[in-house]
What does this fold into?
Amino acid sequence: MRTVRLFLFLLAVGLLVAGPAAAQRFENVPQAPAGQPTAPPAGIKVGVINVQLAMANTQEGKKASEDLRAQFNPRQAEMERLQREIRDLENQIRTQERTLSEDARNQIIRQIELKRKLATRMDQDLRDDIEDAQEGLVNRIGQKMQGIIDQYAQEQGLNLILNVFQGGPVIFATQAVDITDEIVRRYDQAHPVQAANPPAPQRPAPAPPRQNPPPQPPK
It folds into this structure.
């Protein structure tokens, strides 16, 4: 069984900016009659953003990635330990096939089956918990990033923002219309990550007691 491999913080999201608010913006736009081509509006301003990359590159996203690894690494290590135990028992059967008694062999096989069932259950629980944790992070960061994107679009007079992602609909865009870095900068400015509390300064060690100089012999 292939164990779960913890991955870097991947924020798998859809078109963040194409939500209900976006639908309301376009519901009153006049539509061309069916069968007639439509020309793009003059002076339309478009921006593109890689929302997944932007969310992962924010200070909050990077810290969340570190927190996730710290949270799940112990369980991942436990999974790997269990897999090693299963491989060791399987190797024991192969290498001691001629010397193991039937009872000893059956006992090892039962241990392998029990450990495999436990590993399967642990694997599924770990996958589910990682997915739930990531979904919560996506929702938390995504809602705040939506506000940043909306504000930026209004300031810059953008008519449309497209989410660029692997395999997405955008096949070409110049750097001039890529707003990913700017959104990350604004997000970090609006939602700074609280730094860890610095260690308390150590109190200086008490000075050794002052000793009186030894008495001088009489002259």
Residues 102-156 form the longest helix (55 residues).
